Amino acid sequence: MLRRFLDYSFRFVEKDKFKKFFPVVDALDTFCYEPTHPCSSPPFIRDSVDVKRWMIIVVFALMPAIFMAVWNSGLQQVVYLSKSANLMQEFILSSKTFWGAFSFALHQGIFLKIILKGLQLFIPLVAITYIVGGTCEVLFAIKRKHKIAEGLLVTGILYPLTLPPTIPYWMAALGIIFGVVFAKEVFGGTGMNVLNPALSARAFLFFTFPGRMTGDVWVGGDPSSVKNSLHIMNTDAHKAIFDGFSQATCLQTLSSTSSLIKRIHVDTIATNIMETSSVPTIEFIKEKFALWSENHPGAVLGKLSITQLQEFLSTPLSEGGLGMLSSQFDSAYAATDLIYGTGKFSSSSLFWGNILGAFGETSTFACLLGALLLIITRIASWRTMLSCVLGAFLTAWLFKLGSILFFDGYGAWAPAKFFIPAYRHLFMGGLAFGFIFMATDPVSSPSMKLGKWLYGAFIGFLTVFIRLINPAYPEGVMLAILLGNVFAPLFDHYAIRRYRKRT
Fold first, then answer.
1. Tens digits of residue pLDDT in 248-270
2. Is the pTM of this model over 0.85?
3. What span, in angstroms and rounded, lies between the C-alpha atoms of 106 and 50?
4. What does the buried/exposed string (b/e) look like for 39-60 if buried means 16 or more CB atoms within 10 Å of the residue's CB?
């Protein structure tokens, strides 16, 4: 029946009056069946996988990330709007493992509620992206009288996964219009774009509406209701601001960590939280504490009250304290969680994705499942992925090593944010999602093997460099990939020159 309908539609659009709608019918036919028209120009490849099926495989690879987007956004909304401190505390403790979060949902009887809330947040954005973006593609195809490409099939999924759950619908529509029109169609359409369309759309929203793309925007629904719920939770739990529940993501915490907060400050807080003397700067802490405790009899390092801890950190160096500004205490306390994973930013939570963030970026595990399919099917380059990871890891490690070498006391007085373990950078923010699904875009990335290695290393280096050096921009993945897209032809140029010299 579908075949007969499409055949009738083809006969209908063959008429001169309706010929301009041929691209629409042709797109429907190629989406439902294999293309009927042979290639008219080289290169000719005998393969059962055409562009449409290539795009569908990418969508399949995104399924784990899509599932986690629905699950996590729904879970965070239910918990953050519950106004229950006990529920929030139980969620934080249980979400350190993947199955722990599921057990928590089943135990509380909110499993179906989580799924429904997640679908209500994510599905409308996907629908808006396909409808608005598809309309732009159709209009350009009709005007130019060429076939509708399958590029939007992947862009329409990637773009919503980069957005925060609270993004207004009209803003999401405006972003995809910019991505399709100005990042792709003005260059000639699919296969001709210089920049990744989905990332370009997100970058447009980020720089045009920064208030809607950063800050406390990571829990779906009404942000003001979430703030009210958190206020009730913290009041009921009798928690101070620095030790309470908040909407801050790990990258927001990183960006708010001032260079005035040193490693020794964070290590002192970690010693008090974890009640251990294994932090690297413990000898320097003990040396200062011995002098400070002379005026505070009964104080025991590692078992200080919050008041004592704050006083020890903010006392001037000459008096045995650590010389930190008292106003920086809250930020230093949060940075301790970022570096040591003492709270909601544990390594397992970052890896499994039970944290706040954009829809698709939270779960490194889900992204790795997608990477496995892309590598097996050879849709995406493993060289690009691996070089991105190596570039980011080595850059973070060099920041830490340099801080140890150039600052006294095993880096005790170096900025604390330089000591985030290199492996934790790989789990933070959209790094895994960007490296696997965005950086590997075959159109905007290099085609030569050496070019892929240089391209990936450049993106990995720039991502961590922006994160640690630029306090105004918490996430470096987006800009790093877009700059990598711009330099991709240059990387290929030098790769080809080297190849010619060898031959």
1. 788 888 888 888 899 999 999 99
2. yes
3. 43
4. eeeeeeeeeeeeebebbbbbee
